[in-house]
Amino acid sequence: MDRTTGVIEGNMNAAKYRDILNENIFQSALEPRLGQRFTFQQDNDPKHTAKITKEWLQNNSVTILDWPRQSPDLNPIEHLWRDLKMAVHQRSPSNLTEMERICKEEWQRIPKSRTQKAVKMPEQSNDYRVVVFGAGGVGKSSLVLRFVKGTFRDTYIPTIEDTYRQVISCDKSVCTLQITDTTGSHQFPAMQRLSISKGHAFILVFSVTSKQSIEELKPIYQQILQIKGSIESIPVMLVGNKCDETQREVDTKEVEALAKEWKCAFMETSAKMNYNVKELFQELLNLEKRRNMSLNIDGKRSSKQKRAEKIKGKCSLM
Ligand SMILES: Nc1nc2c(ncn2[C@@H]2O[C@H](COP(=O)(O)OP(=O)(O)OP(=O)(O)O)[C@@H](O)[C@H]2O)c(=O)[nH]1
Ligand SMILES: [Mg+2]
Questions:
Q1: In this predicted model, what pLDDT tens digit does every residue of 192-222 receive, in sequence order?
Q2: Are 42 and 48 in contact (CB under 8 A)?
Q3: What CA–CA distance (Å, rounded) separates 301 from 289?
Q4: Ligand 1 in contact with 134 (CB < 6 A)?
Q5: What is the pLDDT of residues 235-255, one digit of tens each?
Q6: Burial group, residue 68, by CB count within 10 angstroms (0-12, 13-18, 19+)
Q7: Whose CA is nearest to atom 28 of ligand 1?
Q8: Contact 249, 211 (CB under 8 A)
């Protein structure tokens, strides 16, 4: 995090805030080589939500993390303000010029480690969050329900958003696998962005009976790429569901090429026939290199699971 010191004379207003953004926002993204690929976070201070600020952010295509009303102030910066206030107070400046000088000195003196600690997101829980995306009716809910409950229904009930939890083994202990089943047809952009920001791994579902359903995944993939910066260390599985159907519109070879381009894994499933469903979730967890996760609590693959893998063969992973 780049800490630039600017002293405002008089009262801070929206125009000054906009000027600060103008001078610093892209500059700060330079060193970590973020380019335009970052999400900007600010609280709902009236200066931040003023028309001129909004226009500037919009004109410069800055992605903003929604900050819900009633949310507390941004914590990290508040911690730093407190540090600064205490340090300045201790040196008892006798006039304004001296205060400005001391402020600048003390601001620079805050160790980098303190800043790093302040911006580090507290690990809210031990959850591993998987988000399932895809066009309406491709079978996202069917896959999730088949996996979580072992059931399947022929009737189609569109989803708004549902979350399911399962305990899995993780690094010699346990954690909660949290699966978010999103809506295919009524996605609010803000909700989608939030799911992506919070998600650790993603399942992108299309139906092999609909070429259009692949097209609908493209903007979602782009958004994941934009929000996460890079896809390399993020488990993403492209899934062609309904592979039991004979009326195919999608050529497997083409999807394999797309998976290669997207640097993600690919497999075909059938929620209806319970084909490759458990394998889908296990393979996704296998792609996570930062944790060692297994669907079986004892961390080992059951003989039933091994047999299942043997019969069905490994899914085609890129
Ligand atoms: N033949 C076949 N039909 C399936 C399969 N999976 C789901 N379906 C059917 O496809 C329809 C839609 O399935 P859902 O799971 O509700 O689809 P969804 O992606 O959750 O849809 P939204 O919640 O609207 O985004 C239902 O009628 C399911 O029975 C499958 O593997 N094979
Ligand atoms: Mg659904």
A1: 888 999 999 999 999 999 999 999 999 999 9
A2: yes
A3: 18
A4: yes
A5: 999 999 999 999 999 999 999
A6: exposed
A7: 154
A8: yes
